[in-house]
Recover the amino acids of this structure.
């Protein structure tokens, strides 16, 4: 008897809509100008968001649990969409200047978003891996698309190191399959507790290999070395995408795997805390030494990886909620900061920190917006970055990782200095001629900046607007599926 | 009414951005005066009781505010000095819109700090008061401000982040349902964990106080700020460390406070004496005042750490009125700088031409070095009296500071205002217009509360008694 596979289109709809956008960009690119495609894609992303919201609380699954549209997936998916929308808005203005204004750019972007959503919606390791690979491959292309030596170098670096990361990850998946005999998160979680000692060893090995693989993707030290070169060398709109959307997706994958499937597996947490500590120290001190603003933001993204990873050290309930809140805030503030860079930079190298001197007197709105982003990245109230940091500290502290919270507090001091310096330089009076690109201020970019700044301000004063959704522990208790 | 008092200045600050340039001074003045008026209204009504609603219910963060006793006194002084700062800034600073907005924004942060009865809310206001201070330094500072900025930012944030970890620890280890002070005090952490948490909390407060060895940011901060002294005035109001230890430290960490008492009192006494000694060597008025303020804060810390009722009352009294006369002194230094173009203490002969400026400055210095009849005396004397009952020797060492204070204050005053006028010195104008008010009003306040301390003591005493009663219960 022929078995009809368990295909439910409803659960896949948000991903399919984005995929449709990607295919449309590929096909229609011959006939339509790129701006039209970007606008179509923006509409697609919004539609995808709407379809996600209709799936709220339904807990729909497809492919026998291989794809699950549970609330966790929807919250992470919405965060991904926010970052993607901001990327598209910025690329509307800057793609032409960055010499990446052709339909392939949009197509690749949309394929990458499809991959990221697949990770967030994944219910087993294979779906997660497929999503991860789609995302990574599109990411390699995006980083290389600009015809410049720097972009090629960064793309090649990204590709080589990313491929190593993927290989390690796949090897880890094989180990986990070997230990538990399953690739499904829920099955792995169920079997992880009752294994024979020999199998436990294999499981631990698999978990650690997967941890290393993910560490490449999210840029946890010591696997972070590609980040500054890639984020710094890629066109700014691509850096924006890689440092927000891709990272959110990779963390969504980590949350699924380590918070769900391997939540009870031994070993990985103690390694993760060492990686987190190293990331906090290296990311923050390295950012302190940067002279280029875009590179500094790249290192700051590494430092934030440390904070985000602290959430994973919490219990799935507390940590998931913290991560869910932090990821959105991180996306908003990083994307808005890079959007300002994209608007003001003279070339894709970004700008030197010293070039920001006196920005307040030349572009007051951008200066205020950028300083709000920097204050939020630094974790100063009343901006949302503060609550993000607070939740990360709390998640780690309550699960017994006191020393790492103290370490995070101490390394944050370095963070505050490197965020403070550009923020304050902007307000210092300056009489030298402007060093910004003269026609950078365009409506879509401004819209993205306003979205980010309003977001971090409102979420900072009334965190419950978003935290009220993510805080329900039941969402994160069943990360592996029920 | 209390919420108006907290947020009215911020509202004014935002309104200033859209006010036409022509009306900015008036609008700022109106908001500052209205805030002070509201404060007096609250005082006449006998203080504002605890108001508490959930802010982030899922995290147990509440919006709890109250203004009574110590907090009301400090809030009133803040509102008063903000008005003075606005009066002076409108005249002194060219194109003062941004400065006025920052002063008002800072006022909200400061009053919020004093009103907050929830640890997270306290933290939020604590950091919020920092942002305008940083911006004032960035926009109006002098050539080496970046160094001062980084130092200031690094020190304060180093402390406050450790405090944040402590705050999380207090709730999570004590098992309190919310961060409201009432709940936390009912579920205190005990044992060695309390000491560790207290140290984390203390890190933030010691930086703000500031307490040796965490004071290094202070002189640079003042030296690099705008000449007028307005940011300094707001900066002295910024010393919320003593208040934080009093309000949260003693109640939440009673055992640790008693355990660490001798060490902390020793540090405080050393800070007072050491700062007075360094002040003596300064030739820049701003640095001199910075170290003088540091020395006063050592006294405040001595009083608070001694946990003795008289001393704590004295500390809160000093904390409140030190702001008045030290703030006014910073403004007086600004006026001096405006006239002679330098902050050096060895100018000489200013008194010949600017008698009123010299006279008022001297009177303010008398208040500062605790001459009887001024508010400073009431505070310092009570602190010494109370602390002596706890740690006589440490108090003796701290008491030497009063002599040192007289030395540094009077010698600097002498070299600037008396002595010979240098040849070719420019003609120095005397006080005119609002400057009389700017220096006169604070002096009147310092004098009034030096002679008639009852209104302030009546406010402070019951609050201190309540806090210290919590200590005895354990």
């Amino acid at each position: 008897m022929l078995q009809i596979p368990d295909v439910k289109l409803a659960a896949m709809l948000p991903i399919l809509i984005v995929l449709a956008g990607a295919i449309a960009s590929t096909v229609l690119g011959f006939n339509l100008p790129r701006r039209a495609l970007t606008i179509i894609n923006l509409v697609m992303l919004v539609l995808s968001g709407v379809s996600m919201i209709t799936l709220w609380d339904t807990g729909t699954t497809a492919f026998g649990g291989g794809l699950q549209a549970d609330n966790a997936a929807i919250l992470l998916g919405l965060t991904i969409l926010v970052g993607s929308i901001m990327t598209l808005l910025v690329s509307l203005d800057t793609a032409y200047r960055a010499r990446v204004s052709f339909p392939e750019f949009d197509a690749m972007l949309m394929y990458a978003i499809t991959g990221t959503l697949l990770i967030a919606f994944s219910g087993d390791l294979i779906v997660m891996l497929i999503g991860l690979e789609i995302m990574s491959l599109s990411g390699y292309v995006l980083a290389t698309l600009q015809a410049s030596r720097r972009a090629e170098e960064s793309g090649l670096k990204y590709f080589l190191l990313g491929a190593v990361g993927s290989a390690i990850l796949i090897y880890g998946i094989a180990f986990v399959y070997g230990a538990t005999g399953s690739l499904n998160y829920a099955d792995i979680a169920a079997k992880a507790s009752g294994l024979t000692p020999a199998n436990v060893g294999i499981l631990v090995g698999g978990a650690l290999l997967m941890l290393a693989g993910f560490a490449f993707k999210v840029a946890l030290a010591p696997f972070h070395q590609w980040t500054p070169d890639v984020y710094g060398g890629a066109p700014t709109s691509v850096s924006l995408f890689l440092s927000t959307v891709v990272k959110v997706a990779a963390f969504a994958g980590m949350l699924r795997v380590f918070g769900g499937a391997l939540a009870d597996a031994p070993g990985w947490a103690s390694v993760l805390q060492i990686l987190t500590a190293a990331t906090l120290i290296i990311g923050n001190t390295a950012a302190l030494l940067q002279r280029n603003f875009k590179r500094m933001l790249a290192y700051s993204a590494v430092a934030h990886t440390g904070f985000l990873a602290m959430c994973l050290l919490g219990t799935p309930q507390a940590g998931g909620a913290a991560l869910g809140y932090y990821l959105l805030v991180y996306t908003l503030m990083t994307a808005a900061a890079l959007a300002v860079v994209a608007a003001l930079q003279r070339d894709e190298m970004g700008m030197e920190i010293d070039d920001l001197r006196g920005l307040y007197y030349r572009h007051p709105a951008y200066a205020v917006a950028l300083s709000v982003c920097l204050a939020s990245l630094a974790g100063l109230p009343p901006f949302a970055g503060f609550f993000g940091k607070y939740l990360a500290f709390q998640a780690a502290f309550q699960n017994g990782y006191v020393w790492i919270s103290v370490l995070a507090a101490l390394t944050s001091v370095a963070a505050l200095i490197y965020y403070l310096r550009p923020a304050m330089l902007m307000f210092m009076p300056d009489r030298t001629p402007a060093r910004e690109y003269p026609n950078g201020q365009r409506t879509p970019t401004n819209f993205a900046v306003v979205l980010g700044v309003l977001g971090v301000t409102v979420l900072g004063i009334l965190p419950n607007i978003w935290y009220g959704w993510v805080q329900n522990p039941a969402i994160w208790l069943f990360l592996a599926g029920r | 009414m209390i919420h108006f008092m907290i947020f009215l200045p911020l509202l004014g600050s935002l309104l200033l951005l859209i006010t036409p340039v022509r009306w900015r001074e008036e609008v700022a003045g109106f908001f500052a005066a209205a805030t002070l008026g509201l404060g007096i209204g609250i005082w006449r009504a006998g203080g504002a009781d605890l108001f508490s609603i959930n802010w982030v219910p899922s995290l147990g963060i509440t919006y709890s505010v109250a203004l009574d006793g110590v907090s009301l006194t400090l809030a009133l002084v803040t509102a008063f000095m903000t008005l003075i700062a606005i009066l002076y800034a409108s005249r002194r600073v060219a194109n003062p819109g941004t400065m006025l907005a920052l002063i008002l924004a800072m006022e909200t942060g400061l009053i919020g700090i004093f009103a907050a009865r929830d640890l997270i809310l306290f933290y939020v206001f604590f950091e919020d008061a920092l942002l305008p201070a940083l911006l004032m330094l960035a926009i109006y500072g002098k050539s080496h401000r970046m160094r001062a900025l980084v130092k200031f930012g690094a020190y304060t944030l180093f402390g406050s982040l450790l405090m944040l970890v402590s705050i999380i620890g207090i709730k999570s280890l004590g098992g309190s349902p919310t961060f409201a002070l009432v709940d936390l005090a009912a579920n205190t952490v005990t044992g060695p964990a309390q000491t560790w948490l207290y140290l984390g909390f203390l890190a933030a407060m010691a930086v703000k106080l500031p307490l040796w060895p965490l004071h290094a940011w202070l002189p640079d901060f003042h030296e690099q700020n705008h000449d007028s002294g307005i940011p300094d005035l707001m900066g002295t109001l910024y010393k919320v460390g003593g208040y934080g230890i009093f309000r949260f430290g003693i109640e939440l960490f009673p055992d640790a406070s008693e355990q660490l008492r001798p060490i902390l009192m020793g540090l405080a006494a050393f800070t007072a004496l050491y700062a007075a000694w360094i002040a003596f060597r300064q030739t820049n008025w701003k640095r001199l005042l910075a170290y003088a303020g540091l020395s006063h804060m050592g006294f405040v810390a001595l009083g608070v750490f001694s946990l003795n009722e008289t001393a704590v009352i004295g500390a809160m009294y000093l904390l409140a009125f030190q702001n008045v006369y030290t703030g006014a002194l910073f403004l007086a230094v600004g006026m001096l700088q405006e006239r002679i173009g330098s902050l050096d203490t060895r100018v000489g002969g200013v008194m010949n031409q600017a008698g009123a400026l010299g006279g008022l400055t001297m009177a303010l210095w008398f208040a500062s070095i605790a001459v009887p009849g001024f508010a400073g005396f009431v505070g310092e004397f009570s602190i010494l009296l109370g602390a002596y009952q706890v740690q006589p020797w440490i108090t003796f060492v701290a008491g030497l500071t009063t002599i040192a204070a007289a030395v540094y204050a009077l010698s600097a005053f002498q070299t600037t205002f008396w002595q010979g006028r240098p040849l070719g010195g420019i003609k120095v104008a005397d006080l005119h217009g609002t400057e009389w008010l700017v220096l006169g009003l604070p002096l009147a306040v310092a004098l009034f509360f030096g002679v008639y301390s009852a209104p302030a003591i009546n406010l402070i005493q019951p609050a201190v008694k309540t806090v210290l009663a919590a200590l005895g219960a354990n």
Observations:
- The first strand of chain B starts at residue 48 and ends at 56.
- Chain B touches chain A at residues 55-59, 120, 123-124, 127-128, 130-131, 134-135, 137-139, 141, 145-146, 149-150, 153-154, 157-158, 161-162, 164-165, 168-169, 172, 200 (CB under 8 Å).
